[in-house]
Amino acid sequence: METLETIRVRRSVRSFSDKEITDEIIDKLMHAAMASPSAVDRRPWFYYVIKDEETKQKVIDNMQFGKYKSPVIIIPCINELKTIPFAKELAALDLASSTENILLAATDLGLGSVWCAIYPNKSHIKAIQKALNMPLSRTPFSAIYLGYPSENDKGKIKDKYDESKIKII
User: What distance in Å separates the CA atoms of residue 123 and residue 132, rounded to the nearest whole number?
Assistant: First the structure.
C-alpha cells in the first residue's frame, strides 16, 4: 500500500477475529514504532507486547475505556530513565508519534487497530503499572489493540478532511 493511501484508510477497529498475529508481523510493527522521530533522539520508549490471554484480561480489567478482545495488545510506555530531564513532557509526543507509526504499519499489513489512552491519567497509569508489574520508571502511555478485523467490523472509510480547519497565509 502506498503511504498516503495507508494514512487515508486507517481507522479504529474494535472487533477482531481470532486469527493469530505472527511474530514476524509483530517484529515489523516494533521496527515501525522505533523508526518514529524523537526529541533529541532520546527514544524514551519501552513496549509490552501482550499475547497471553490472562495478561490481556488484566489490561482490559484495568482500562476505563478500551475493553476490546484482540489477539495482541501493545502497551507503549515512557521510559522515564531516557527522558530529557528539563523537558520530560516531550516524551509523550515521542510516544504519540511511535503509536501512530504502529497504527499505520498495522493498517499497511492488513491489521485492524484501535488506540486507547492511558496517559496522562494518574489513576489509569498506576492501575496498568500494577496489573503488569511494571517498574515505576515505565509510564504506560496507551493500549493498542491489534488483530484482523472481524466480519462485523468491516467499517466504512471516512473522509475526515475539513477545509474549514485550514488557513493558508
Answer: 14
- Residue count of the chain: 169
Per the CB < 8 A criterion, the answer to whether 17 and 146 are in contact is no
Residue 1 maps to a domain: no
Query: Which domain CATH number covers 52?
Result: 3.40.109.10
pLDDT, tens digit, for every residue of 71-114? 999 999 999 999 999 999 999 999 999 999 999 999 999 999 99
The tens digit of pLDDT for each residue in 4-33 reads 999 999 999 999 999 999 999 999 999 999
Cβ contact 50:72 at 8 Å: yes
DSSP letter assigned to residue 21: P
| C-alpha–C-alpha distance, residues 89 and 95, integer Å | 11
Within a domain: residue 134?
Answer: yes
Cα distances from 135 to residues 2, 78, 80, in angstroms, run 39, 11, 10
Q: Is residue 144 part of a domain?
A: yes
Peptide bond between residue 120 and the one before it cis (omega within 30 degrees of 0) = yes
pTM of the model: 0.95
The DSSP symbol for 136 reads T
